[in-house]
Write a structure and sequence with these properties.
Blueprint lengths: L11 E4 L10 H6 L6 E4 L1 H20 L2 E10 L13 E2 L4 E2 L3 E10 L4 H4 L5 E8 L13 E2 L1 H8 L9 H7 L10
Antiparallel strand pairs: 1-2, 3-6, 4-5, 6-7, 7-8
Bound molecules: manganese (II) ion (2 copies).
Length: 179
Amino acid sequence: TSTSNYTNTGFDRGHQCPSEDRDLNSTDNAATFLMTNIMPQAPNLNRVTWVDLEDYCRTLINSGNELYIMAGGYGSGGTGSNGGITYSFASGKVNVPARYWKVIVVLPVGSNDAGRVSANTRVIAVDMPNVQTVNSQPWGNYRVSIDAIEAATGYDFLSNVSTTIQSSIEATVDNGPTQ
Ligand code: MN
Ligand code: MN
């Protein structure tokens, strides 16, 4: 696919890894513009709710943390700026996810990351609808457990962390600061 596939679809080219998170050098940055990093997001998701969470993540980085961030979409059927429900475009080559998720692990800057994830490690998971009304709520209202994202997507997140710790931190819903 190419950028032109998105023209007039009513959906933005939503970067899963934001360009702003890969600005150390031009090679890293260019990789964020590959179409494999891009999925169709309703403009109010891409430009408001999703970006608000991206900005908050950079706030955490700027206060001495390192983050593991995983993101994607699931399901089919979103509502962009053209209204209605769009399931796909580009002759079916681009699925329009119904929902977008993100899983974030927050660690103070350090080493041996998987080994130092504990039951007290902050993890943030969100599950947002791919619709124009998404921004009627702040990003923090879309927080869910990691277990909920595992159930929705079939992935097993944090699989390098012991199952005891996974079952603890994946079952909780973050209630920390959101800005
Ligand atoms: Mn689990
Ligand atoms: Mn898991």
